[in-house]
Amino acid sequence: MRDCYDVVIVGGAVMGASTAFWLATNPDFDGSVLVVERDPSYATASTALSASGIRVQFSNTANVRIGQFGLEFIQAFPDLMEVDGDRPGLGYHPGGYLFLANTDEQVRILRENHAVQRAAGAEVELWDADKLKWAFPHLNTDDILLASYGLKGEGWFDNTGLMMGARNKAKALGVDFIADEVVGIAREGNRVTGVTLKSGAKVGAGTVVNAAGPRGGKVAAMAGIELPVEPRKRTIFVFDSADSPEGTARVNDGRLPLMVDPSGVWTRPEGRYHLVGGVPDPDVTPAYDDFEPGYTEWEEQCWPALAERSPNFEALKVVRYWAGHYDYNTFDQNGIVGRHPEVTNFVFQNGFSGHGLQQGPAVGRAVMELIVYGGYRSLDLSDMRYERIAENKPFLEQAIV
């Protein structure tokens, strides 16, 4: 490890690894990069504990286009990440996403989102209850007013594979990764000058990138910057169904999608099993090290919603469960990307509120472009700028799962 780096990235999960990858593979950048990761096992990283989905069904154009690029990246992954003949794949499963609405307000949101998605070229259809019942015969559609189904560009994949592929490629190209924790950020006026590590080492930095996930607010505070990002706990249950409906769909070769029920509960197949999760009530801010699953959510929230939606989900058995953290943006539930307007060598990639894994490739590329070129050259993510917080101009994302 050097005494000073051109770029120090705080956090080595999908956001930090992606940014490191893009910097390392850009021939226009010849600087040094250090990635500091507090837990190299990634046992509690949001990346490793996510449900690993990718979709285009969002409520704003930026997120739709980020999703579209994410799929391109996944499909090109073996070529992009090849190291010494090893070509890692991500096992992409094109299952699609299915959003259900049973209130007038939910219908309005689906229609508005659909207009945005179609304008961006996403292949998404709106279905009435009859079409929904035909496509997925196992569902109870009596209360459904409208459904939104992604025909292409949506599914799930290997979450840790994405992170580790980018990390390994970046390391092979000279990026330094260390197991340590940033506990302080030095600042002189309107510039950050370096970081202090838990080990006691001090490292100079030309640019500091905040890729700390749910700890993003804590890291920003070290530089005297307020950032409305905090952890929110989400529990995922894996269950076995005595009469699984997987294979019964009349679309997508029988495969079931990731379905988002009007209740907010979501479920998707995973091999012979299924995953399910929801939003806890109340949705409180946990301690950074609190990963105790919300056990009661199964009985009180998930199972009742599943059983009401399909008779195939009445006889279920939980086989495992875990909890992870969203890096939740309390301001508008959308990513914060870009330089701080005053401390311009402090760069954000924070607050993705549950969709950071799929957005890592595009956001990492965007942050690389800011560092190397001073502006965006591919996707324009200026709507995600930090300044919107001070201006009290939310850039809302309504399609949070």
TrEMBL record:
GO terms for cellular component: cytoplasm. Keywords: Oxidoreductase. The keyword Oxidoreductase applies. GO terms for molecular function: oxidoreductase activity. GO terms for biological process: mitochondrial respiratory chain complex I assembly. InterPro entries: FAD-dep_OxRdtase, FAD/NAD-bd_sf. Residues 6-370 form the FAD dependent oxidoreductase domain. Transmembrane segments: none annotated. It comes from the Bacteria. The keyword Membrane does not apply. This is FAD-dependent oxidoreductase.
